[in-house]
Amino acid sequence: MAERRDPAAMPAPLRRDVGLLGRLLGRVLEESGGPALLEDVERLRHATIALRGASPSDREAARAEVVELVAAFDLDRAELVARAFTVYFQLVNLAEEQHRVRTLRERSRDGGTVRESFEAAVQEVRAAGGDAGLAALLDRLEVMPVLTAHPTEARRRAVVDALLRIGGLLARLDDPGLSAAEEADTHRRLLEEITVLWRTEQLRRERPTPLDEVRTVAAVFDATVFQLVPDVYRSLERALVGDAAGTRQPPFRPYLRWGSWVGGDRDGNPNVTAATTTAAMTVQADHVLRGLEAAARRIGRSLTVSAASTPPTPALLASLAGDEAAFPGPAAAIRRRSPDEPHRRKLLLVAERLAATRSCLVGEPAGGSSGGLGSSPPDPPAGGYRGAEELLADLRLVQGTLAAAGAARVAYGELQRLAWQAETFGFHLASLEVRQHASVHERALAELAPDAVGDAAALDRLATDGWAAHSGGSGGLEASPPVDQSRGAVAEEALATLRAMAEVQKSFGTAACRRYVVSFSRSAADLAAVRALARLAVPGGLALDVVPLFESRADLEAAPEVLDAYVALPGVAAWLQERGRRLEVMLGYSDSAKDAGFLAANLALYRAQGALAAWAGRRGVDLTLFHGRGGALGRGGGPAGRAVRGQAPGSVAGRFKVTEQGEVIFARYGNPAIGHRHLEQVTNAVLGASTPGALAALRAAEARFLPAAARMAAASEAAWRDLVEGDGFAEFFARVTPIRELGLLQLGSRPARRGGGGFDLAGLRAIPWVFAWSQNRCNLPGWYGLGAGLATVAGEPGGTATLQAMHREWPFFRSLIENAEMSLAKADPLVAEPYLRLGDRPDLVAAIREEFRRTRALVLEVTGAERLLGHRPVLRRAVDLRNPYVDALSFLQVRFLAELRAAAADGGRMADLVLLTVNGVAAGLQNTG
What is the pTM of this model? Predict the structure, then answer.
């Protein structure tokens, strides 16, 4: 009988990789700092492992030993030790990523249907609605990841690049065909690259600019996403038609639609201007046009079918003749090499047309920057494409003639991949979305039309009828000049932003930049204000979708009422009709959690989803909900597939739009196999959540459990507010976390706070709030108040059984508990204790300690596990592996945090050391904000 493998045990390949990387890092440490450095690192490592394994009676002595070791390090030694643990985490993360890829490949080869796969989704939807139901759902399907520059990626780009090189070498060791010499050379190269990583500065010395962030995101598209998208489509095609994939027109339209806030999100970020937005689109266009051109050249070179074996159609020959006339030089060279290969010549001239298009729209980059928008590009050259639709027409023409000649596999193989890329990315790569705070528009209108501020009807008239007749102090504004010095800076920048959107649309089409997200939307006037400003900025008309963003709990509850007032405005009603009654609404996860606490915010979001879906049904509105989920669990993070299944009934309906932020972008899309699996799981969840059976089950669970959840949320929010709104809590938070020091990290172009002034929680953004609590090992935003809520129901007759039934039968509650369980597992009272003592508030410490104890006990009671993550052994193993090493960095951090705040000597280097430990803890816990 085969021995049953313990799922919590580290698999042999992962153990091998972790051991190899650890040994190589140890060798690098010896070579760099001598045997004494490695000995110091090992002593601290063994001490923290002993602390983790100590019995309750021995724990204080074990902790004292760790504290004594840390206290003995001088600043130079502490910096090296902290860097060693930070690099170790980065290497362990790589090993785990590589093992995940390995596991995915093994599952795909096992036969059978993989859970949460395309095949599983197709089976589920077919069983629910047959082929007709599947076809209808695929026709509606949309998955829209929106990449943002939210400052949650703590690593420098140089560090990320070094890790990518190490990851490639580590993956090479899985090749069974490696010779002994090749394996030895791979080990040598690994040692070399780990040495480079060790000697690479971990901290950014300058804050990135918005355009730096644009280029970073564009590099992700270059590295993985551009090739990943057609791979995902091909996998779905195989799930639908099996071996016939690649032999006919795919039975679904491309459903992935990428968006970006990078270079468009100016809420609280004065560094993002109208000029930034136009420059961002130039960078995006440059990257996608280069990608399309390279793909067309590659496919063209391999498309060597002859006219004799594969006769071209007259339409293809006519099109080819037109291209040759437009590009006589390249055409003559191509014809000399391929006189009897018209399909090849056509594709190579498609590449020439793409190069001409890029030259027109973007210009040739010089010195690291591009021309294009804002630099008066020349008129389109002869032969350039006017839009992606013309490119697609050329590709379909080639596909059609190949298929007609009997070469269907050639028509729908690599050519189809290029067609999918063109359909998905267009000439703009990702739809650039603008975001601004509602108060900014109010201030702009106060400068331009003070009598219309807050008056939705008056603003709608300005948007519909124009500003020429307006006499509110700025009459005759309809003929708006590019810059009007009589306007205030706020108004001028608001108008310039809208003009930038129009400029992008003129060059790249309306899909390139038409959405305008209004943060903290609280009234119809907040939304109508943008439409009114757009009419003044672009009198000739701007394709504009105003997207309200509801963030606080009160705003989420009021959302249907606000939308009712908005769509009742005559101008908006007409616009809605023109848009096919499609409307997008965004829900903010970060600020609602900071406002009401973990449980109450999650339930408020769930209820808002249901209320908005019901509102849309009553109004005949085709609604898309846009989920502003953060990476961390305290900001709505967690596995996206389970989150989709946990949405309110009717709120998915075949579409899912979500933000992908900072560190999450690299975690999900840095590796092609992991990116593929992520998009597969999300697609599976969107399809499955949209079936009638899933909707019926959700409605039944909601009807049964929502009253109990509401009671829990009320108790949870009360506990949360008692803590965070209590006297002195803001000062306590500032003392027990490295929140002030986090401001020194050059994470992103956006400031950590909205507005200036002194320290207060209201102005603090959710990202640093969550980041700070993760650093002191409390993870407070991801669980606090949940215990109070669970206790409310657990104390009722049959309450525990009710909670366990909710966990089994209600996807929303199961996802919530799983996310809280992960937050609790990453929290650690033992390590948090010295941080909390810095606050000198034993009453608050006691409240946090007691709520942690209660929440942990009740979560275990609900899940039926003996320990946190007991039913998720792979995650439990990952947390257990990391904890002792994170502890080492935490003890280093809290020591130097206290000394830094006591104004110890050498504060500059000491601050750097604290920030280095911040990077290390973030790598160990695998999350920032």
Answer: 0.91
